[in-house]
Amino acid sequence: MDTKQIKSLMNHFDESGLSKMKITRDDFSIEMEKNTGVVAPVAATPVAVAPTATPAPAPTAAPVASTPAEITGDTILSPMVGTFYSSPSPDSPAFVKVGDIIKKGQVVAILEAMKIMNELEAEFDCKIIDVLVTNGQAVEYDMPLFVVEKV
């Protein structure tokens, strides 16, 4: 199996209801297992506050909840669920940085999924406008990783 077939298989497995799978074909073997641990939410206990005799301050405008900025322009998306790495090793420089012009097929990051390091390659020539994730961050399928401008 080549890398694209393995990535496709991993995506299908991730979206399926299966929790474990093992495939053996000739001299190739792959075993996948999902972490099915469930974390129970912790309920917060209310704290009683004694009323005070001081007058309440005049009402002010409610703060606006911060929402993530909408991404405009072309992006490079994560092809799988995994961990994002910006360089081949902790001591190495990042594959790309803001302002870099990259060619189609150039490695822009590594995505670790199930202890397998997968190189993420650019699908087109572009310029890196913004890096949206940090080194070691968990990423989801189709999550934007880079904002780019096609060249």
CATH class of the largest domain: Mainly Beta
Overall tally of domains: 2
**What is the CATH fold-level name of the largest domain?**
OB fold (Dihydrolipoamide Acetyltransferase, E2P)
Q: Which class best fits the helix and strand makeup?
A: mainly beta
Q: Write down how many β-strands occur, each being a DSSP E stretch of 2 or more residues.
A: 10
Please give the count of helices. 1
Order of helices and strands: HEEEEEEEEEE
Which superfamily, in CATH terms, is the homologous superfamily of the largest domain?
Answer: RNA polymerase II/Efflux pump adaptor protein, barrel-sandwich hybrid domain
Distance between the termini: 33 Å
Low-confidence stretches: 62-67
- Rough shape? elongated
Q: In what range is the share of β-strand residues?
A: 25-35%
